[in-house]
Amino acid sequence: MAEAKTLERALGLPTLTFYGVGIILGAGIYSVIGVAAGPAQNALWLSFLISAVVAFLTALSYAELATAYPQASAEFAYVRRAFPQWPGAALVIGLVVALSGAATAATVAIAFGGYLRELLDIHPMLSAAGLIVLATVVNLVGVKEAAWVNVAFTLIEVGGLVGFTILGASSERFGEAILHAPPAGVVAGAALVFFSFLGFENIANLAEEAKNPKRDLPRAIFLSLIIASVLYVLVALAALALLSPTELSQSEAPLSAAVRGKAKWMAGALGGVALFATANTALVSILGASRVLFGIARERELPESIAAISRRKTPWLAILTVAGVSALLLPFGSVGVVASVSSFASLSAFTAVNVALIVLRFREPTRERPFRIPGSIGRFVVLPAIAAAATVGVATQLPPTALITGAITTLAFGVYAFAHHKIRAAKSVGNR
Predict the structure, then answer these.
(1) Could you give the CA distance from residue 285 to residue 98 in angstroms, rounded to a whole number?
(2) What's the burial of 121, exposed, middle or buried (CB within 10 Å: 0-12/13-18/19+)?
(3) How far apart, in whole angstroms, are the C-alpha atoms of residue 313 and residue 6?
């Protein structure tokens, strides 16, 4: 293995966009649409639209920071620049983001095992472990190869949702939901579906593998979020045209239930699409999280060996580390428990990034920013402040177990960061 610390710039705008769309769509839409239909009722489509706007506010912050500081360990790098006096804060955020990627991979791997069990008599945990291994191998082969697999799987994901939408659009009831007055539960529904939009932020972690990061990163972030948002709203309208909100909320597989009455073959096809969706999310989650660990280790905040690069220009040890953590999370066996870690981590990162952008506008006002968020009062940027508040609001909707698990995890990382910097400071004094 080579010890070079640079990655291969192999990703253009199309592959970056496919990466974003693939990880956003994932498999969440196949289940969360039913859960959100309960409180949102016929305004389910509006819940998706509200969540899209909230996600877009944070996407603006990622777009500006990704072009100003195009580094693999995105959140870690931003917080480190914003709060140099608190180096432990950046390390905690970086580790939380990396854990989020590993937890996401584990979550979708468990879901993958469940979907495959419907087709083949294979134990779900065995299938989940097999998916983690396959996703790891593809990532080790190279980022180009991983990108092509991602493109193929994403096209299947999008095709499944487009097919569902076309079927729903053939119903006379398609679009009627827009005429209903939204109930109070539309906001609660938005909080539930918000997690279906997570993933666009991972594009920033590919900054050192993008051919033209300052131009393509913000475009890929916005394009992927727009494509996913349009698909989600159309899918919600199609689902409401095929089933009532009550029927959707009572089904464990709402999309399959919605099409079963009109096309039984489509119900089975959606199950197959979900396999590709979960596999794709596992692939890109491991990819993104490994880049975070790579960037942290390169700054010697983790063992420097984790930043090792293979001959194929992949951070091989970082990839294996993320895959190992994902595998360790599998025995928990519950999608809900593992997903809660991922959700808490993502929302923590969103809040930190929005705050970091506000601080960096004051700390480094002259820095080149190829993309710049509009709407400032002096040096104070308004939209990131709104985004931070909205993110905290969404976080309050997490179940208590998620908040407790997330707090314990953050505290553990904080203890590690404190001890790590104390040891480094002692070594620095001893070497004088």
Answers:
(1) 9
(2) exposed
(3) 8
Would you say 201 and 58 are in contact if contact means Cβ atoms under 8 Å apart?
yes
Cα-based torsion angle of the residue sequence 258, 262, 263, 267 in order, rounded to the nearest 10 degrees: 10
CATH architecture of 13-422: Up-down Bundle (1.20)
CA 120, 124, 125, 131 torsion: positive or negative? positive
Round to whole Å and give the CA distance between 299 and 302: 8
H-helix or E-strand containing 376? strand 376-377
Q: Name the H helices within 26-123.
A: 29-40, 44-68, 74-82, 87-117
Tens-level pLDDT at each residue, the chain (432 residues): 344 478 999 999 999 999 999 999 976 787 789 889 999 999 999 999 999 999 999 999 999 999 999 999 999 999 999 999 998 999 999 999 999 899 889 888 988 988 898 888 899 999 999 999 999 999 999 999 999 999 999 999 999 999 999 999 999 999 999 999 999 999 889 988 888 898 899 999 999 999 999 999 999 999 999 999 999 999 999 999 999 999 999 987 888 889 988 888 888 888 889 899 999 999 999 999 999 999 999 999 999 999 999 999 999 999 999 999 999 989 875 655 666 667 788 889 999 999 999 999 999 999 999 999 999 999 999 999 999 999 998 888 777 888 888 889 899 999 999 998 888 877 776 665
User: How does strand 380-381 pair with strand 376-377?
Assistant: antiparallel
- Using CA atoms, how far residue 403 sits from 279, 309, 382, 388, 431, in Å, is 27, 36, 27, 17, 42
Could you say which DSSP state residue 180 is in? S
192: three-class secondary structure by DSSP: helix
Beta bridge mates, 376: 381
For the chain, the domains span 13-422
Helices (H), 208-263: 213-242, 245-249, 254-260
SS3 298: helix
Q: Are 103 and 286 in contact (CB under 8 A)?
A: no
How many Cβ atoms from other residues are within 10 Å of residue 130's Cβ? 15
Given the structure tokens 């079963």, which residue do they identify? Answer: 260
Structure tokens at 184: 């109070």
CA–CA separation, 106 vs 369, rounded Å? 36
With vertex at residue 315, the alpha carbon angle to CA 312 and CA 318, rounded to the nearest 5 degrees, is 150
Residue with tokens 């539960």: 185
Q: The dihedral of CA 72, 76, 79, 83: what is its sign?
A: negative
